[in-house]
Design a protein that fits this description.
With 175 residues, this protein is mainly β. The chain has helices spanning 13-23, 66-76, 104-107, and strands at residues 6-10, 43-50, 57-60, 81-89, 94-98, 111-118, 125-129, 132-135, 142-146, 152-156, 162-170.
C-alpha cells in the first residue's frame, strides 16, 4: 500500500465534461452502507459493487455511464476494477476520521490501488488525508492514488454539494 497519497494527473477538459455530464443523468443516490461506517453522511451512486472481500461482482452500472467507465479503465489499464462509486456530501455533511486498513480486500491483498477523483475544490471543503489537512483546491480535477490505510476525514463546510469518485483497482492475480 502507498505510504502517502499522490496526484497521478489532472483530468483533461473532455474528461471533466464527460464525468459531470454523466452524474447529471438523474441517478439513484442511496445511503452508502446500512451498517456502521465512517460514511454516515452523504449519499452514494454505485457504478460497480463487489462483496466485502472483492471476490464476487454484485452488480455493474457501467452501461449507463460509459464515459466514466472509459476514464476509469484508462487509469486502471488492464487491471480489473473493484468497487466504483460517486459520493456526495451535502453542506454540513462529513465523513468521520478513519482508515480503511480493516477492509477485507485490503487485508486479503486483492486491492492494488484506490483512486479518488475530486471534481471541484473549495476552501470550505475540509479534507484530511495521510494524517494531514490538504487543500481541496489543490486536488480539484485531479486523479489521486489514495493511501486508504492512512487516516482520512472529509467535512463539507460550504453551501454546495461536494462530489468525488472513488474506485478500486485489483491485482490481476487476485480478481
Amino acid at each position: 500500500m502507498l505510504e502517502q497519497s499522490r496526484v497521478v494527473r489532472k483530468l483533461t477538459k473532455d474528461e471533466i465534461t464527460d464525468l459531470i455530464s454523466e452524474i447529471k443523468l438523474d441517478p439513484k443516490w442511496v445511503k452508502h452502507y446500512d451498517g456502521v461506517t465512517a460514511l454516515q453522511d452523504g449519499t452514494t451512486l454505485y457504478l460497480q459493487q463487489f462483496n466485502q472481500d472483492a471476490t464476487k461482482l454484485i452488480f455493474s452500472n457501467f452501461k449507463k455511464y460509459p464515459k466514466t467507465h472509459a476514464i476509469i479503465k484508462n487509469i486502471a489499464g488492464d487491471a480489473p476494477l473493484g468497487r466504483c462509486y460517486w459520493h456526495k456530501l451535502m453542506p454540513g455533511d462529513k465523513i468521520n476520521r478513519h482508515d480503511d486498513s480493516d477492509q477485507l480486500h485490503v487485508i486479503n491483498g486483492s486491492l492494488a490501488n484506490r483512486y479518488q477523483i475530486y471534481l471541484k475544490g473549495d476552501d470550505n471543503f475540509l479534507l484530511e488525508m495521510d494524517n494531514a489537512v490538504k487543500s481541496s483546491k489543490d486536488l480539484e480535477f485531479s486523479v489521486v492514488d489514495f493511501a486508504l490505510t492512512n487516516t482520512h476525514f472529509y467535512q463539507n463546510n460550504s453551501n454546495q454539494p461536494w462530489v468525488f469518485l472513488v474506485f478500486d483497482v485489483l491485482h490481476k492475480s487476485k480478481s
